[in-house]
Amino acid sequence: MFRIFIIEDDAKISSMLKAHVEKYGYEAAVLEDFDRVMERFESFQPHLVLLDVNLPKFDGFYWCRQIRHVSTCPVLFISARDSEMDQVMALENGADDYITKPFAYEVVMAKIRSSLRRAYGSYSGRQEERKVEEPGGLTLYPERFILSSAGASVELTQKESMLIEALMNRAGRVVSRNRLLDLLWEDHHFVDDNTLNVYMTRLRKKLKELDMEERIETVRGAGYVLRTTGEESP
Amino acid sequence: MRLFLKEHIPLLIVYLVQIILVGTLFWLGSDTHSVSISLYSAVLITVLLFVYLTYRYLSHRRLYQRLSEPAGTLDQSQNEIGESPLADALHELLENQFQLYQNELYDTRQRLALHTAFINRWVHQMKTPISVIQLTLQDMDLDDDEVEGSLQEELDKLRKGLEMALHTSRLDRFEHDFRVDAIPLRSAVQEAVADNRRWFIRNRLVPDIRIDEELAVYSDAKWFHFMLGQVITNAVTYSAGRGERVVFAASRREAETVLEITDQGVGIRPEDLGRVFEPYYTGSTGRNYHESTGMGLYLVREVCSRLGHRVEIDSAPEQGTTVRFVFDARPVRLPV
Lengths: 234, 336
Hints:
The complex is a heterodimer of chains A (234) and B (336).
Chain A: E1 3-7, H1 11-23, E2 27-30, H2 37-44, E3 48-52, H3 60-70, E4 75-79, H4 84-92, E5 97-100, H5 105-120, E6 132-133, E7 139-141, E8 146-149, E9 152-155, H6 158-169, E10 174-176, H7 177-184, H8 193-209, E11 216-219, E12 223-226
Helix pairs in contact in A: 6-8
Chain B: H1 2-7, H2 9-29, H3 36-68, H4 85-140, H5 145-170, E1 181-184, H6 185-195, H7 197-202, E2 206-210, E3 216-219, H8 221-239, E4 245-253, E5 256-263, H9 270-273, H10 283-286, H11 296-307, E6 310-316, E7 320-328
Parallel strand pairs in B: 2-4
Antiparallel strand pairs in B: 1-3, 4-5, 5-7, 6-7
Helix pairs in contact in B: 2-3, 4-5, 6-8, 8-11
């Protein structure tokens, strides 16, 4: 299991990051004593470090240099400082990436995953594959875009996988169109209402292959909901 | 020279009166009433006057030059202005004034720097609580997706507000804070649109980007992004519920590249149009929208003028507004 070391002086942020990182199957530790950064680093032997810039006593750049003396593990900066200068400084002091506050979990997780993959290869010490489940019996393997139920499975496109994952995460509750549009609007490509309808139609067809077509329900004026079995429409 | 002559007109008049007076006296006093003695005295007096004036002019030339040509820059006032007692006294006075003025200026600059540093620090401090709220919101996994969307919207507003505060305070030290590069226009616009995507989605608006892949402009990426953000925010806010799309179109005409951002919103009244770039000016439309600070377009114009771009605005009430950025084909030169 990959170990992630969190060096951040805001206790709330660090504990939330820890909880989230652990949810994704990594082991995480939060630095508590800023007098013993390197000691803690040596004893924990992390595979990756999340590092804030503004820290008590010495700044993150300093600690990044210290870490670089003993390790080549990926270091990701997380900082409120967003100037070009700070980012250049971070990279020059040996960082691998820079995330600015305020940030969303997805960004941090995506950068952690890609840094780990780059540093340790995609297969070495590989995590157990991530899978998303819901009470209705669907299982999604978001890394392979495979959706399965009761032994049968269908292949999805990336967008379809993102949509069904959002619906499964909130199974039984309405997911607003706004949230789905936001989700699909990645890499600069705009997705409008009609395109979302098209994606949903395709997704329903795929669900039909699993005999679950009627599980996605349209809630007029709000969004979509993935019905959990036996539930009545409101 | 003119100042010198003007200054000495009373003296010339006094001398003229004197010549006439003395000439008349000599004429009356002499038995023969001959004119020659009077003329002789007049010539004598005139020569004396001219000798004096020449000396005076030569010794005060620099002072007069100085007085008739106002200083262009601050430190010119330190130049020597001659040796005469009058020039010396004036020099001392100027120097004194200059010193006092310098002290005052230094104090003010110091205060401004302190203030800028404070704003900077404060904005960064505020980002941590915003991060905490952002993450908590995600962790809470609210049952009502609408509530979460609405909270997210408020968070986005906070983030934008901070961004604007930061950029406003950075404007004062602009020269330390920008770097001109060739920026691919299409991807810069896409990035700015993506940054505001929740704002588009919530207001049911479609961004329509019609920009050639190969168009590039010389600008500072960060400031350009900031300006686009301001214009996009306006376009979306003022066309929510009436327009369908916000069009981003670019074209090249001769040495210039033009980027036009057009909305189908409420538009701006002709009487307001001339003043939209003034700070804190919200106009009659802005007052109906609570979030108008009146600072957005002002900042855009300030940044544009520093980067050597032009920004223009066209609008027809009830039909929409077009904001136009005009970029020079050549890279802007850094202001010294």
